[in-house]
Write a structure and sequence with these properties.
This protein has 179 residues and is α/β, with parallel strands linked by helices. It contains five helices and eight strands, in the order βααβββαβαβββα. A six-stranded parallel beta sheet has the order 3-2-1-4-5-8. It is globular and about 45 Å long.
Length: 179
C-alpha cells in the first residue's frame, strides 16, 4: 500500500509570527506541533511505502529543510495524509481537492492561525491553547464551520463561525501513524 504525506504552507515567517502572539502564549502549542511533525517526517523517511511532498500557496522560505521533499505532483496513492498551516483553510482546501476517500488530516501536525485583528476574519478568536485545541477538535468533528457573509467576487472575507452538524473531517494523530 503506497502512502504519502503532504505538508502544506509550513513557512518560516508564518511560524515565527506565532511566537509573538499574546506574548508567547501559544509557544508550547507551536513547539508540540513542530516536534510532532519532525518526528513523523523522521519516521516516514525510514518507510519504503511512504512519499512526502511539500505543497505551497506562496513563495516563501520553508520552516523545514525541504531539499529531500519532492514538490507536489499529483500521483495516485492508496492513502493521503495532510499536515501544515492553516488546518481549517489551506490544509483543508487541499484535503478537499484530492478526490479520494482514504485521506486524513494529521491533526497534531497542523497549526491553526488565530485571529489577531487582521483582515483575515476566518481564523478563530481564542485566548489560550486550550481554547485553540477545543476549536480544532470541534472543527474536525463537524461542530463548527466558517460561513461567509458574502459569497460574491467582491467578498472581503467577512463572516462568522457557526455551530451546527457539518461534515466531519477524517483525521488521525502522528502517534497513531507511527504505531
Amino acid at each position: 500500500m503506497k502512502k504519502c504525506l503532504i505538508i502544506v504552507d509550513f513557512f518560516k515567517d508564518n511560524i515565527e509570527s506565532f511566537f509573538h502572539l499574546n506574548d508567547g502564549a501559544f509557544k508550547s502549542y507551536i513547539d508540540d506541533r513542530i516536534s510532532n511533525l519532525s518526528n513523523l517526517i523522521g519516521y516516514i523517511k525510514q518507510q519504503d511505502n511512504f512519499d512526502m511532498f511539500y505543497h505551497q500557496y506562496g513563495n516563501q522560505e520553508f520552516y523545514f529543510d525541504t531539499s529531500d521533499l519532492e514538490t507536489w505532483n499529483f500521483t495516485d496513492y492508496d492513502v493521503y495524509y495532510f499536515s501544515g498551516l492553516s488546518m481549517t483553510q489551506c490544509v483543508h482546501s487541499l484535503y478537499c481537492a484530492i478526490p479520494k476517500l482514504n485521506k486524513y488530516i494529521v491533526s497534531d501536525c497542523c497549526m491553526q492561525e488565530v485571529y489577531t485583528g487582521d483582515t483575515n476574519y476566518d481564523h478563530p478568536n481564542v485566548d489560550n491553547i486550550e481554547d485553540l485545541v477545543k476549536f480544532e477538535n470541534d472543527w474536525l468533528n463537524g461542530k463548527i464551520r466558517f460561513m461567509f457573509f458574502d459569497n460574491s467576487s467582491t467578498n472581503d472575507g467577512r463572516g462568522e463561525w457557526k455551530s451546527g452538524d457539518f461534515e466531519k473531517v477524517n483525521y488521525i494523530t502522528s502517534e497513531e501513524m507511527i504505531i
